[in-house]
Amino acid sequence: MPDAEANTDSGETPVRTEEASEFQHPDAPALSFEAVTHRYAKRSGDALAGVTLQIARGERVALLGPNGSGKSTLLKLASTAMPVRAGRVLVLGASVTTPGGVRRIRAETGAVFQSPSLDPLLTVKENLRVHAALFAIRGSERRERIASLLEQFAIADRAHDRVATLSGGLARRVDLARALLHGPDLLLLDEATAGLDLASRNAFWEALLGPDSEGSERTIVFSTHQIDEAERADRVVMVHGGRIVADGTPDDLAARAGERTLCSDDPRAAGVLDGAGVGYAPTDAGVVVRGDEAIEKAAGLLVQGGVGFEVRRPTLADAYLAITGEPLTGEARTSEAEDESTGEMAAQRQEREEAGEDAVFVPAVVPAEPADLPGASGAVIPPSAGLAGALRALSSREFLRLFRQPSRIVGTLGTVAIVWLVLGGGFARAAVGTDAGYVAWLLPGMVSMAALFTAVFGAITLIEDRKEGFLQAALVSPAPRAGIAGAKIIAGGLLALIQAGAVLLAGPLVGVELTGAGIAGAMVASACIAAGVLGVGTALAWRVGSVAGFHGLMNLVLMPMWLLSGSVFPASEAAGWMRVVIAINPLSWPTDALRGSVLGEPAGVFAWAGAAAFGVGGVAIAIIASRRAT
Predict the structure, then answer these.
(1) Does a structural domain hold residue 142?
(2) H helices of 542-587, where?
């Protein structure tokens, strides 16, 4: 099976040429969907049902429809955020089902999703720097692009404010600046102004499409159910029940509802019209009457009844109602799709778990098309950060987050101290084979606990990144997936070593003599523990949807592993079955190496080999999981 990360993990930054800025077929459509069908697990009907659609370069196209009509699914497929299961999708001439195509699409496409894709703990400028690094934008070029976008979207005065302090409208503008940082040829916006008030929505679109905006040749495709937004587009594609039901300019589509429309938001209107047998369409905003004869009759009845109404030119909402028989506002009344709701993510996760796969991105094996062959027609794959650059950018972000959440450090050390005091006090007189007593003998176990608990918190941050939205933007960037997992391991591992070292320094207080070699050995063993736990935890975090669920699973596994690793009591003092479990427990190996280093009783080669295997194995599991992850 081809690997979606092919050609992305070398750490090299290919030279970008003018020839490469447009893919191998400059005249190819910006987007091409051919007979695309998509279905979510345990959902009746298709989210997309054989959609065929082409969008030319330079067009500004609105996908118009209510929530659940299939708009988001189209954009997620185009952004490579989900796999194409049936049909064919080309983006800027490249296929979303080949590794080379995926890489180029991510490098030349910008995406703004329904929820923000920013880190709330970082400032506006810090967020933009991280995302610029994922696209190999560095130095003066990065500074100039960020400064220009901050000015364009009128957020320069908030550059040093944390995103968490911004209003929804300002955060949306920052998110748009993020998507435009690398100068994409195609911009995909999925309900980008959802939840914003009218003034904030207008400011957003003015910044993107106004006369002072840049990138007039850029293709922009956005989903919306707001009429005023759709009217800004050159072309409107109406989506209903997973199908394209109409396609044309805003004026042409509105004309399909007739020359006039009668509307009334008076709650008495429906009763008056029902009593006279006049047909109307109920909407969230009231009643709508179409057709000259029906309008004349309805107007007379409403005047007689003292019911307010207006007769106006039809809008896109009237056209959508006329074409589909359903109003544009509210949720779609069909069971065929639920792709814009929060239930979509749960459905996708469930689908991946049942199928034993993840949605982004393990492409199906398909014949490579000429447009997808790296180097064809002289094209060069656009640059990305590579593995080394992704590790630098994402690790620096992790460290910033750690420094701004000191409670995590204090909480771990506090937990270790309490456990140590309770166990040490309760078993102070226990015979453990060391003159220093049980409290001293327990010290290596507490160092192990500090490394282990800190590593668990490091892995949890992946789930937080998903919930806060940062992860979705990182996943559709060209940065290697292994960089995301690696950054978690690097940052979490360093913090785990700091925590373990802090506990280790308490040794002299309980009668343990620490030597340079002993401290070095203890740090190496602690690094093995942290790497192993972080690796397994990160792999699990890709598939678990909640922090609470992750905590429960990790505690169910790690707490027994720690208790039965020789950290709390010697294996020689345990029951027979416990001695067997301790002997085969992989955490026992680094724990033995740690204890031998701290207490001056060097562990054997087997313990150190097992400790190394525990750490390396965990990292390998995390990398494998990250390559298949979404």
Answers:
(1) yes
(2) 547-563, 576-584
